[in-house]
Design a protein that fits this description.
With 55 residues, this protein is mainly alpha-helical. The protein has three helices and no strands. Helix 1 runs antiparallel to helix 2 and helix 2 packs antiparallel against helix 3.
């Protein structure tokens, strides 16, 4: 994983902690584009979607 992806994940976690699930999803989706098999990112995306009431 590269430095950019790590920074995006950190930003997403901070957004998640602030309950800014839309911002967290935006960062996580960018990571998934280049690292589709990163399970922690997929899990956090699922939590964001759940809190937003999306399937």
């Amino acid at each position: 994983m590269n430095e950019r992806a790590e920074r995006l994940i950190q930003d997403a976690r901070e957004a998640f902690d602030r309950r800014d699930y839309v911002a967290a999803l935006a960062d996580l989706r960018e990571v998934v584009e280049n690292h589709p098999h990163y399970a922690d990112v997929r899990q956090l995306m699922g939590l964001c979607l759940s809190f937003l009431g999306q399937p």
